[in-house]
Amino acid sequence: MKTRKRMRFLVSAAVGALVATIALVALPSGPAQAHGNVISPASRNYGCWQRWGDKFQDPTMATLDPMCWQAWQADPNAMWNWNGLFREQVAGNHQGAIPDGQLCSAGHTQSGRYNALDTVGDWKTTSIGNNFTVQVFDQALHGADYLWVYVTNPGFNPATTALKWSDLTRVAVVGNTPAAQWTPVTGGVQLNIPVSLSGRTGRAMVYTIWQASHLDQSYYWCSDVTFGGTNPTTQPTTTPPTTPPTTQPTTTPPTTQPTTTPPTTQPTTTPPVSGACSATYALSSQWSGGYQAGVTVTAGSSAIKSWTVRLTYAGAPSIQQTWNATSSVSGNVLTATNVSYNGGLSAGGSTTFGFLGSGTATTPTVTCTATT
Questions:
Q1: Residue 232: which H helix or E strand, with range?
Q2: How does pLDDT run along the chain (372 residues), one tens digit per residue?
Q3: Residue 61 gets which letter from DSSP?
Q4: How far apart are CA 136 and CA 133, in angstroms?
Q5: pTM as predicted
């Protein structure tokens, strides 16, 4: 047992040294420590990232999705790093490690990054039936020693009551399952866990624990649901998009409401839709010293296999972070290319990518090329 613990320590130390070395060279193009999450019914932080990642500075979120708004204001990294909500060295004693009222943040893990997920309120829910499926996405191919799925007891209302262990009943168990036995999807693997209940209606929470196999590393996720619907049919069955870097750039925009926020749907540059693809640029929000923008890429009359978008500015742009694309800057041109999961588009199909920039936003000239 001492030898095993020592080996785990040496491995952890080696990985930490490697990550630190890489951080000195350059920011990673994706998450340096990729892990996973429950993508259906969407966990609180994955759902907030999924709905608002491209427009996290949009003040309308405060009205349309107030629980996500307070979470973004508290710590945007809780959503950017939706795949990192875990604790280490719990040794299976989950209730001992995580106090009542802190189940959604895994006991204020990661120096409190996820604390806002414990906030009691009217979180957006996924409508499900009494027979539903929990979809767990594993981006790092960790596999599982086990997974436990809980549902809150009848009468529990997460909109008014903090979650306690005594509020939960375990409804599904998956034993040791190597990543090779999960369903392969783009960028990782996925495990579908069927749950069958009876007579449930109204608000509830689904709580999932994933004990990963590579280390003593446990993941904890709260998903808000409403019983009485049907199992979601539009939930992704492949990997969610790659998140921005784990280490946010020093120019990450302030979490306070930007002083100027143009409409998020107002396109400022609209190239013609002829050709293999077209791209539309839109300014999502701006603040003193920075801005957020998004680009919609649309295939033409034929399907495409990959795309490249070039944004030409009057001067050299300063781009701090890009998501859903790989980008580079040469002179006054920002070039963005698709990533693995969004290059192939059917005829007339579209996808989006976004980026954060420093300075004052200006309108670029946008062109799109594609391979068919």
A1: none
A2: 444 444 444 444 443 433 333 332 232 233 334 589 999 999 999 999 999 998 888 899 999 999 999 999 999 999 999 999 999 999 999 999 999 999 999 999 999 999 999 999 999 999 999 999 999 999 889 999 999 999 999 999 999 999 999 999 999 999 999 999 999 988 899 999 999 999 999 999 999 999 998 888 999 999 999 998 665 543 444 444 444 433 333 334 333 333 333 333 344 444 434 579 999 999 876 766 778 788 999 999 999 999 999 999 999 999 877 777 899 999 999 999 998 878 899 999 888 888 878 888 999 999 999 999
A3: H
A4: 10
A5: 0.60
- Written as six digits, the tokens of 241 are 């998009």
Distance CA 245, CA 32 (A): 7
Residue 141 three-state SS? coil
Angle between helices 66-74 and 44-52 (to 10 degrees): 100
Task: Give residues with Cβ within 8 angstroms of 349, minimum separation 6.
Answer: 298, 299, 303
- The single-letter DSSP state of residue 57 is T
**Pairing relationship of beta strands 365-371 and 217-227 according to DSSP bridges:** unpaired
One-letter amino acid of 21: T
The residues, any chain, with a CB within 8 Å of residue 135's CB and separated by 6 or more, are 38, 39, 40, 190, 191, 192, 193, 235, 237
C-alpha 217/C-alpha 87 separation (Å) is: 6
* CB neighbour class for 223 (10 Å; exposed up to 12, middle 13-18, buried from 19): buried
CA distance 28 to 30: 5
Q: Which residues pair with 260 in a beta bridge?
A: 286
Whether the Cβ atoms of residue 137 and residue 34 lie closer than 8 Å to each other: no
For 109, half-sphere exposure in the C-beta direction (CA atoms, 13 angstrom radius) is 23
Question: Which tokens sit at 359?
Answer: 């300075």
Tokens standing for 313? Answer: 């500015």
Distance CA(22)–CA(32), nearest Å, equals 9
